[in-house]
Records
---
Amino acid sequence: MYVAEISALAAALCWSCGGLFAITPARAFGALAFNRIRITMAFFMLAAVALFTGGWYTLSTQCCVVLAISAIVGVLIGDSFFYVGLRRLGPRRSSIIFTTNAPMAAVMGYFILDERLPASTTIGIALITLGVFLAVFHGTTATQKHSFEKVEGSMTVGVIAHLLSAFCQAAALIIARPVLTAGVDTIAASALRVGTGALALWALLLFRPSACRAQAPVTRSLLGQTAMNSVIGMGLGMTLLIHALAHGPAGLVSTLSATSPILVLPVLWAVTRERPSLGAWIGAILAVAGVGCIFNS
């Protein structure tokens, strides 16, 4: 009973918790180095599961090429931009801004796949835009001093990085959609995408070592936090999402799994002992409501 609903919400909670583990190593290692380490860990985990379940046999050569291109756009470029923004803005603002990938995907679908934009989608885009504005610029109070709420460097750079990340993720979804709807094993497809991104980042390290190597020593603590982000955010969260999709309609699952901007607020409250501002709550609710309008149109 309510298997899909509970699984989708649990996936959103995993992504919210995973973001908390990411902030410290992302700031210490740098965006590219952190992303390289985390997705390498995730690849071995997902590849082992796909090998155990036989999911690799569902991938044809054509599927592999399409998924590899999707990985370059979404995992290599998109995730790297995301952690550039995360280092500057922290997990709460990051989770809110990243919801803009939903309206971006809707607009891309309209122009690239000739999908119509119904009135509810237009309303959703407006709600997400307003929610992002409130959460980013009116989402803190003077009493919030925790490092998770601290803006390091330029907020403008962080916002632009997250918008670019959201755009890349939306584009990667459009690229991979034909393959993902053709019946391939989702875990194997995810493992291939993650593996391609990891391989590209390791290759980039060889050619641009100064920009890609870790900016801080790889300590046991930082490596442990990175592993927790990889297991909880990418491994467990993705598995729960797949489980939810197997038991419920995609629109419902997508909407509930997009509640991470709301779920991250009580998690942050518990971790930092600092209550999020009213602007943060309103912005998160508006953003998720906008996602709901898009997926239920």
---
Amino acid sequence: MTGAGRARRLVAEALGTGVLVATVVGSGIMASKLTTDVGLMLLGNTIPTGAILVVLILMLGPVSGAHFNPAVSLVMATRGRLSWGDFPPYVLAQVAGGILGTVTAHLMFDQPVLQVSGTARSGAGQWIAEGVATGGLVLTIIGVLRFRADAIAMAVGLYITAAYWFTASTSFANPAVTIARSLTGSFAGIAPADVPAFVAVQAAAAIGSAALADWLFADEAPAAGPEAAAQDDQGAFQSWGR
């Protein structure tokens, strides 16, 4: 990988994570301006997040693999689909991009740039929810890449949209996003003190889910035909699917 190529991948990861977080935080701020109904606020936060994930994966997948998530990058590194040398820069780019996304959302809505969330998200229920959310995301990525790689963008967007509603934590499922969301006082925030436990659960669930996927899909043949061949050569999601 050339220096320019690596730089493009890191910028794509930072940009994608930043836009994702700006969407999460910005839609949360907008929802709280438009309604006081908590259910409607959550819905107003959910739909933009799932939608932007589809767009970002389709747009940036060919550049970096569109991880936008240290837990996903960790899984890909353990599976040999991302070099360990690229793993720390990917994580740094994702975290930096996420923080910039929070700052951008605050600027768009004329809010103080530097904030600290006071929203407590702690306890066994929250941690189990994050394990389910992150594990399910990784299982979705590995399974869909194996059998329907062309559908990965839609699958990830739909999974996160659903997980917002069936997990008690509203499905952070992403250490970089978790860190970035601790820096907003908006509806989408998480108290900084609760971040370490979320990140630890996310990382453990990602590794555990990857192991489950290897066992679950071991006897199933990958999708055949031109689409599979295209992905093996130079498909849109090389970093995820090789």
